[in-house]
Design brief:
171 residues, alpha+beta, 4 helices
Length: 171
């Protein structure tokens, strides 16, 4: 996913949690290893501080059944903390729609929402907000303590999640 967020000031604080690269075709494994070493040495990728810099690489041969014009193709899957900005944007759009009760008539036709109980939407909103808070906390070196020793989110300065486990969900 590409977004305009990458050009903002906060982009320097965003970090990768992990990366998976799948490379298909004629690739020299030593060349890939040297490239990864260079990335780590020069710190070209900003990783989380509380865990290992996880760059996984899977090499595979080209499929004999699929014809491609290129000698090598690849796919990168990454978990990055900047996704929180997309979730925040979704939350702000939701707030605007919810304030106007927009598009809720169709839901009220169903028995689940018939008595005007829209708490399901509000609970979902709270879950997304806690997800945004957690991605923000991931950028902190103290993330491991987040939610356990930091129930009020003092480390991040954000959030409304208590950091406690619901007894009904505990196994």
């Amino acid at each position: 996913m590409v977004s305009s967020y990458a050009r903002t000031k906060e982009a320097s604080q965003a970090k990768y949690i992990s990366i998976l690269n799948i490379i298909q075709g004629e690739v020299d494994p030593t060349q890939v290893h040297e490239s990864l070493q260079r990335i780590r040495e020069r710190k070209l990728v900003n990783f989380i501080e509380w865990g290992p810099a996880s760059i996984q690489v899977a090499l595979s041969r080209k499929s004999p059944y699929v014809q491609t014009a290129h000698r090598v193709s690849g796919l990168m899957l990454a978990s990055h903390t900047s996704i929180r900005h997309l979730f925040s944007k979704c939350l702000s759009h939701y707030e605007k729609l919810r304030k106007r009760d927009a598009y809720l008539d169709n839901y009220r036709k169903f028995p689940m929402f018939a008595d005007n109980d829209l708490s399901e939407f509000d609970e979902s909103r709270d879950i997304i907000e806690s997800l945004v808070d957690e991605y923000k906390a991931c950028e902190s070196p103290d993330y491991i303590k987040w939610g356990i020793e930091d129930p009020d989110h003092i480390l991040t300065g954000e959030g409304n999640v208590s950091g406690t486990v619901d007894p009904k969900l505990a196994v």
